[in-house]
Amino acid sequence: MKILMVCLGNICRSPLAEGILKHKAQQHNLSWVVDSAGTGHWHIGQLPDARSIAVAQRHGIDITDQRARQFHPDDFDRFDRIFVMDTQNHRDVLQLAQTETHRAKVHLMLNLTYPGQNRNVPDPYHDDNGFEEVFQMLDKACEKMVSVGRLEG
User: Fold this and answer.
1) Coarse DSSP helix, strand, coil percentages of the chain, rounded to the nearest 5 percent
2) For residue 101, what pLDDT band results from cuts at 50, 70 and 90?
C-alpha cells in the first residue's frame, strides 16, 4: 500500500501524519510506503515546522528526515490512497485529478475516525498550542488505518 498525506504547506499536519503512520505501520509489520506533500509551493525543501518536530519527538517519532514537497498530478499514479487534511486541500487536489480513478483515491483524513462528517484537521501553524491536539487527531486516524490494514493484509 502506498499512502500520501496532503496539507497546505507540507510542514505541519501532513509531516505529522506521515511520521505517525510510518511509525504505526512499522510497529504492525505493514510494508507500506508513506509520504506527504503540500498543495502550496512555499516550503519546498524545508524541514517540518519545529513545533511538529517537537510534538512528534515527545511521542517517540522522528520526522527530521522529511522535506516539504508540492503535490504533483503524478502522485495520483504513484499512490494508492491520498489523505487530505481539510476540505480546501480536498478541493485543491481534486482539481488536479483527471480521471474518476484518481478522484476515488482522495479522502479526508478525519473521515477515518468520523465517517461521512467531513471534519477538518485544523491547521496549527498560527496556534502554538494546537500541535498536540492535531497530533492526537492524526494518531487516532492513523490507528484506524492500520487496524483496517491489518484486516485487509
Assistant:
1) 45, 15, 40
2) very high
C-alpha closest to that of 2 among 89, 79, 107, 113: 79
Mind telling me the catalytic residues?
7, 13, 123
- Rounded CA-CA distance 120/75 in Å is 22
User: Which residues does 20 contact at the CB level (< 8 Å), separation at least 6?
Assistant: 56, 59, 61, 135, 138, 139, 142
pTM: 0.96
Inform me whether the pLDDT recorded for 132 exceeds 60: yes
**pLDDT tens-digit map of 53-95:** 999 999 999 999 999 999 999 999 999 999 999 999 999 999 9
Beta-sheet pairing, 33-38 with 81-84: unpaired
- Supply 96's cell numbers: 488536479
Rounded CA separation 10/37 (Å):
5
Cβ-defined contacts of 129-133 (< 8 Å, 24+): 131/12, 131/16, 131/51, 131/52, 131/54, 131/55, 132/55
Question: What are the φ and ψ backbone dihedral angles of 57, each rounded to 5 degrees?
Answer: -60, -40
Cell numbers placing 141: 486516524
